Input
Amino acid sequence: MTAKRGFQLISWGILFFIDFSPFGFDILPDIVGFLLIYRGAFLLADTSIHFANVKKWIPILLVLSIYDLIAPILAAALEPYVVAWSSLISSIITTGFNVWLVWQLCKGLSAWAEKKGESDLVLQARKRAIAFIIMMIVMLLMLGVALISPYWFTMLVIPVLIAYVTVTLMLLYLFNRASAKAL
Output
């Protein structure tokens, strides 16, 4: 039952990876997602070292997500170039940690599934982790595209966002499947 709840919490936490900010207000703040993932990893820490690692490193992501929440307030007081550079650096660091987080979560799920004899879940976890890493690389490349060619950025942003949401939902589904198999 603990594993089931842990996977459910991680699944809900992954939903918060999707940034939806109408009128500048983030409806799905990352901090909530990271807290849910932390609790899920806490419940699953005894099933895999990977979940224990997540539990140890989530505080860094919490600090980064707090920075993301207050960045618009800080932007009003800082020079535009400082805001631009700090946003770029923050994006790169956050992306790196998100890649690491998803890799650890998928490795933890894979280890749990292997112990349970769920080979299809093991394979799916590996594929989803790789898909997420590729998607994050594409998202970082989009920052460069935005600087080099705003036209191409405008042309590519919607398809890339659709792909990102799709990959995120695939991760969510993966952890839902694990939850269903953890009876």
Remarks:
- The CA atoms of residues 103 and 130 lie 8 Å apart.
- Helices lie at 2-15, 30-44, 49-75, 80-116, 119-148, 150-181.
- The chain has one domain: 2-19+26-181.
